[in-house]
Write a structure and sequence with these properties.
There is one protein chain. The protein has two domains: 199 residues, DHBP synthase, CATH 3.90.870.10; 103 residues, Threonylcarbamoyl-AMP synthase, C-terminal domain (Rossmann fold), CATH 3.40.50.11030. It is built from ten helices and 17 strands. A hairpin with a 6-residue loop joins strand 9 and strand 10. It is of the alpha/beta class. Bound molecules: threonylcarbamoyladenylate (TXA) and magnesium ion. Threonylcarbamoyladenylate binds next to strand 5, strand 6 and strand 10. The site of magnesium ion has 3 residues, from loops.
Length: 336
């Protein structure tokens, strides 16, 4: 299949919408990461998304809408807290999970009785969804297990030749996926930290539960090992003196640094020299891809503070990591 690279202008958006209306699969920008979209009401179109991503069928997708009013028919019941959250955070990186309407195909929700919905804060996405005239089911536009694409070049790198089109809108602003919040349980529960900070959510949902859910309420896609780079990644645990195992020279390792310029590494990416965690989130996946492409023996990642978007960054780094590492002199000690 020839994948069309569409300009993010009215004509490109109209072509993307036409593909979606015909049951096609189109990658499109959102403020978080690029999504791989299909008509949410067509089980066949959504099946193609699972196929090209190589995504397991047990992992449900988020349905994207152009207005809050378009979300309501996807759910059976919309509690007041959902309306308050939509009012406060949409459009934006917050996904809400509620019991699904019968019209939502099972493949979208992986058989779950709930459906996750969000309204992205990206003009191109909103115009495309409105032009398609239907809700759009979309996981992140990467091959399953790889890190989410924050630029249309990343999408092409993973999926060129497998999908109908990519709307090319350059880098995404937030850079980390949406926060997923379940309102189908009481009290409401955080299923995945993301682009909407927990602190902001708590102002509206004071009884929010954040401990990792177990069993049926868990978010199936939040697998412990996810976002895996090809190069083994180790998260630095500050002051950890118990590291034993393989010793690698710094120059054989890449480092994903928070704000400090570490010396001696084979390759370095600094997420945010100012310490701004929003900037760090926006850089995260692209920086990881560049370090991975350097083909060094290991990537070591420096932790960031777990506040604001730092919570989501650390969640992604933990999932991407294969173990632990600590720095010792000119060497990096990794524990496998
Ligand atoms: O920012 C984002 O959320 C991006 C953009 C494209 O919107 N999308 C995204 O989709 O990250 P994906 O499929 O990579 O992650 C969706 C997450 C998964 O962890 C999935 O398990 C969870 O949302 N999810 C989807 N439907 C759910 C449901 N009904 N109940 C619980 N978790 C659900
Ligand atoms: Mg994903």
């Amino acid at each position: 299949m020839d994948t069309q690279l569409l300009a993010a202008d009215p004509s490109g958006i109209a072509q993307a919408a036409a593909f979606l209306s015909k049951g096609g699969v189109v990658a499109f920008p959102t403020e978080t990461v690029y999504g791989l979209g299909a008509d949410a009401h067509s089980a066949e179109a959504v099946a193609k998304v699972f196929e090209v991503k190589n995504r397991p069928r047990f992992d449900p997708t988020i349905v994207h809408v152009a207005t809050p009013a378009d979300a309501e028919p996807l759910w059976t019941d919309v509690p007041p807290v959902a309306r308050r959250l939509m009012e406060a955070f949409w459009p934006g990186p917050l996904t809400l999970v509620l019991p699904k309407a019968p019209s939502v195909p099972d493949i979208v929700t992986a058989g779950l009785p709930t459906v996750a919905v969000r309204m992205p804060a990206h003009k191109v996405a909103l115009e495309m969804i409105a032009a398609a005239g239907r809700p759009i089911a979309a996981p992140s536009a990467n091959r399953f297990g790889r890190s989410s694409p924050t630029h249309h070049d990343h999408v092409l790198g993973d999926l060129d030749g497998l999908i109908d089109a990519v709307l090319a809108a350059g880098p995404t602003a937030v850079g980390i996926e949406s926060t997923v919040l379940s309102l189908a349980v009481s009290p409401p529960r955080l299923l995945r930290p993301g682009g909407t900070p927990l602190e902001a959510l708590r102002e509206h949902v004071p009884d929010l539960r954040v401990d990792p859910p177990q069993g049926p309420s868990a978010s199936p896609g939040t697998l412990p090992r996810h976002y895996l780079p090809a190069t083994p990644l180790f998260l630095l645990e500050a002051g950890d003196a118990t590291c034993v195992g393989e010793i690698l020279e710094r120059r054989r390792c890449a480092i994903l640094a928070y704000r400090r310029r570490w010396e001696g590494f084979g390759k370095i990416e600094v997420l945010a020299d100012s310490g701004d965690l929003r900037q760090a989130a926006a850089q995260l996946f692209a920086a990881l891809r560049r370090l991975d492409a350097a083909g060094l023996a290991a990537i070591v990642a420096e932790p960031v503070p777990e506040e604001g978007l730092g919570l989501a960054i650390m969640d992604r780094l933990r999932r991407a990591s294969s173990g632990r590492a600590c720095l010792a002199g000119e060497h990096v000690q990794v524990q496998r």
